[in-house]
């Protein structure tokens, strides 16, 4: 019997309840008791364990869900744990950038939504390696059980530093596609082979390497943004941090909310080195970022005597 963790805004429960009842009638087990977790001792880790113990992650998305620190913490944790995410859209609120490639299931048509969710749970739900899941839970255990906003800030920083804020087994509703484990039915193999062949031909025609004129300089340059936030060890935003991009010889400083921002003329989604420095009390931090990402976060560690 498929089982799922439901992430939702409390104000949306009445809207989603009929769909949940129909799924339960079809034999699906859905867990939504996270309110009993919040406020307890080590609740960030207990929440992570609850998400980890379920095969699927149902994300009920709406205007209120987008504003909820609890919901954001839950889907960030699901990404870190590489859970299969099944998005259910209650209104037209756009998804966060990291989730926008997901094809949402529209909740308005309950019968159709039920069928599509049940179809999604027929796909095997790959589990991340045990060592990876344990590492995520250990990180959650280090977060003080403070107010949700602070817990979320700290969790995002920790997850992004580890490279865990990337889609895992996100189910594409109505398609035979998983993000990290791509599988195609045998009946589609000939179609896929044809598409690959056409892609190779298109690249061969478009790129002038065949006459010896292709060089790295031919890569198209475009204006892109790069930005993010810097926090101290307590998860508080740091103002006045000098942030630089050595390759482009650009320097800026974080504002009072710890945010920094660049506009760069460079190759699409190029990976660049980022250097952050603040007075001698802090250890300089080096990381990498992808042009186009304006929601990076990382920590700066204080030097301890």
Kindly report the spatial arrangement of strands forming the biggest sheet.
2-1-3-4-5
CATH class placement of the largest domain: Alpha Beta
N-to-C SSE string, H for helix and E for strand: EHEHEHHEEHHHHEEEEEEE
Work out the helix count. 8
| CATH homologous superfamily classification of the largest domain | Toll/interleukin-1 receptor homology (TIR) domain
Largest beta-sheet characterization: 5 strands, parallel
At CATH level 2, the architecture of the largest domain is 3-Layer(aba) Sandwich
Question: How many structural units, i.e. domains?
Answer: 3
- Stretches where pLDDT falls below 50 for ≥5 residues? 170-188, 208-218
- Report the span from N to C terminus: 55 Å
Shape: globular
- Count of strand segments: 12
CATH fold node name of the largest domain: Rossmann fold
Structural class: alpha/beta
Strand content: 15-25%
Average pLDDT works out at 81
- Helix % is 25-40%
Global Rg: 22 Å
